[in-house]
Amino acid sequence: MASSIHFLDIKGKPLLSRDYKGDIPSSALEKFPLLIIEQEQSNNGVPILNDQGINYIYILHNNIYILALTKKNENVFSIMIYLSNLIKVLTNYFKNLEEESIRDNFVVIYELLDETMDFGIAQITDPKILKEYITQESHKLELLTSSNNNEMKQPPNALTNAISWRSEGIFYKKNEAFLDVVESINMTVNHNGQILMSEILGKIKIKSQLSGMPDLRLGLNEKFLNSAKESGNNASGRSGIELEDIKFHQCVRLSKFENEKIITFIPPDGEFDLMSYRILSPPLKPLFVINYKFQNHSNTRLEIFLKVRLNFKQKLTCQNLEIFIPVPDDIDSPKFQTVKGNLKYLPESSCIRWKFKSCNGGKEYAMLCELLLPSTLDAKNLEIFKKKPIKFSFNIPYFTTSGLQVKYLRINEPKLNYQSYPWVRYITQSGDHFEYRV
């Protein structure tokens, strides 16, 4: 991978360097500021430079360049990931990674560079593991030694144990595990109510407060796991789904999942993402049905009417529903009428926010607003406003659009044999892109 790692200030002046292979001359570092200037002039924002057979891979963080140099045709993304993880490690140690913190912690940084990379090959970059045997106090490095100070302690369990993500000796008075199934929906609906684009981004999040070394077994419904294309209905009343981009936390035993479709793992302590998945073009129906009308009165007054029907079961409750209705810039004296919800004009976003704290599925609500337009309003700007979509933001608890269901979550700790309490919660929410074209 990298031949050397360098820390430079915003002007390209070296602050700290670590040379692993010695195959790149020091003069190469002097050319880096000139290469940055050439890159800025060419409007090329790619953080990879090449000069005379030397590759410059860098990340700019808080006006500091973290730079890796290499002569070989290496995997650039691997080096970028290492540099990104190195920033996280140093930030974890010094809170703020700045020029001053680098000058005050030379010893610690050199030690961390030696532990995180060996002869240019990335090693340990987990701050929790590094902090078990590298401590920092008063800007000095301290190594944990044995009581007689003549021999080093054994390496921490995280280095020698297969379970590097969890340390031993964890104890809670009340043992609990909280599991959240969170699905974010991105959707675009045209003015005829047809879905143009839809996807589900899902995560299974766990907050573990369990003592010892618990072994957890999570069972999901087979229709979800098998990603079947077969006919039939899933829990949401739609046909089978196809999972894509499934990712597991490193604690999951992949062979067990592939063979038996069961997720087994020893969890890290605290909060973590157990699993993430993506469903492209799922068989969804629009969660909301809208009726939008506007009337322009001689470019001096505008009336907007919007009716929204919550297109899901009555037993479900939509929380924190916000509907952002676009309006022209520089409107004057907005007047609102509605029976349900709160309406507010947001001039900085050129929209009206219709907000509901809570509303049930199957319900229908309407609003009417009257806007005075400035006499200088350009007809072209009015046409631009007409093309802006209505955007939604919401949360629907106790519901998943994909039909994922947790059948069971079993917790086993044979040594302590304590009673545990698993909690499961489902949440469907709007993603970054949930809009209706009008």
Automatic annotation (TrEMBL):
<dbReference type="InterPro" id="IPR011012">
    <property type="entry name" value="Longin-like_dom_sf"/>
</dbReference>
<dbReference type="GO" id="GO:0006895">
    <property type="term" value="P:Golgi to endosome transport"/>
</dbReference>
<keyword id="KW-0653">Protein transport</keyword>
<comment type="similarity">
    <text>Belongs to the adaptor complexes medium subunit family.</text>
</comment>
<dbReference type="GO" id="GO:0043001">
    <property type="term" value="P:Golgi to plasma membrane protein transport"/>
</dbReference>
<dbReference type="Pfam" id="PF01217">
    <property type="entry name" value="Clat_adaptor_s"/>
</dbReference>
<dbReference type="GO" id="GO:0005768">
    <property type="term" value="C:endosome"/>
</dbReference>
<dbReference type="GO" id="GO:0042147">
    <property type="term" value="P:retrograde transport, endosome to Golgi"/>
</dbReference>
<protein>
    <recommendedName>
        <fullName>MHD domain-containing protein</fullName>
    </recommendedName>
</protein>
<dbReference type="GO" id="GO:0099638">
    <property type="term" value="P:endosome to plasma membrane protein transport"/>
</dbReference>
<dbReference type="InterPro" id="IPR036168">
    <property type="entry name" value="AP2_Mu_C_sf"/>
</dbReference>
<dbReference type="InterPro" id="IPR050431">
    <property type="entry name" value="Adaptor_comp_med_subunit"/>
</dbReference>
<dbReference type="GO" id="GO:0030121">
    <property type="term" value="C:AP-1 adaptor complex"/>
</dbReference>
<dbReference type="InterPro" id="IPR022775">
    <property type="entry name" value="AP_mu_sigma_su"/>
</dbReference>
<keyword id="KW-0813">Transport</keyword>
<keyword id="KW-0472">Membrane</keyword>
<dbReference type="GO" id="GO:0005829">
    <property type="term" value="C:cytosol"/>
</dbReference>
<dbReference type="Pfam" id="PF00928">
    <property type="entry name" value="Adap_comp_sub"/>
</dbReference>
<dbReference type="InterPro" id="IPR001392">
    <property type="entry name" value="Clathrin_mu"/>
</dbReference>
<dbReference type="InterPro" id="IPR018240">
    <property type="entry name" value="Clathrin_mu_CS"/>
</dbReference>
<dbReference type="InterPro" id="IPR028565">
    <property type="entry name" value="MHD"/>
</dbReference>
<feature type="domain" description="MHD">
    <location>
        <begin position="174"/>
        <end position="437"/>
    </location>
</feature>
<dbReference type="GO" id="GO:0006896">
    <property type="term" value="P:Golgi to vacuole transport"/>
</dbReference>
